[in-house]
Write a structure and sequence with these properties.
- By secondary structure, the chain is an alpha+beta fold.
- Helix content is 24%, strand content 36%.
- The chain contains three helices and seven strands.
- Strands 1, 2, 3, 4, 5, 6 and 7 form a seven-stranded mixed β-sheet that branches.
- The radius of gyration is 16 Å and the shape is elongated.
Length: 139
């Protein structure tokens, strides 16, 4: 069975190799950004690796969090957030990542939150998007 890190690496690689996305933001592997990161940025995290219904079925969540600086009036930069979220949606939805020891089904688009203000960074908002991954592994 693939490890969470293998799934994480495959999704991060897919996003970080997209030139259009990299022109919109910097993508970081993991749920936390480096302290020196500059917005706009995004993090990729894999969570909740669980057995699914049926033998050999596994599933997990891929959580993408997009960070953007607020506009000068304090409002979220909806255009910037939307551009990044839409590009990630186009890259991830229905894509079949390659995993060792498992057959991944196409990635499923899930819920997306609206912009949320950060308590730690007053001039920053974030938006979380969740995707689902189901894969089959008989090892």
């Amino acid at each position: 069975m693939p490890k969470m890190n293998d799934i994480h690496t495959a999704v991060y690689k897919l996003l970080s190799e997209d030139e259009i996305l990299m022109g919109l933001c910097t993508v970081y592997k993991g749920g936390r950004r480096p302290s020196h990161s500059v917005n706009p940025s995004a993090t990729v995290e894999v969570k909740h690796l669980d057995r699914g219904e049926g033998e050999g079925i596994w599933m997990c969540d891929i959580v993408i969090t997009v960070f953007s600086d607020s506009l000068t009036n304090g409002q979220p930069d909806h255009v910037q957030l939307s551009d990044i979220v839409n590009r990630m949606y186009n890259i991830l939805t229905d894509y079949e990542i390659e995993l060792n020891d498992a057959k991944a089904l196409p990635i499923i688009a899930g819920e997306s939150s609206g912009p949320v203000w950060s308590g730690h960074h007053t001039q920053e908002v974030s938006q979380e998007c969740v995707y689902g991954l189901v894969f089959v592994c008989y090892n």
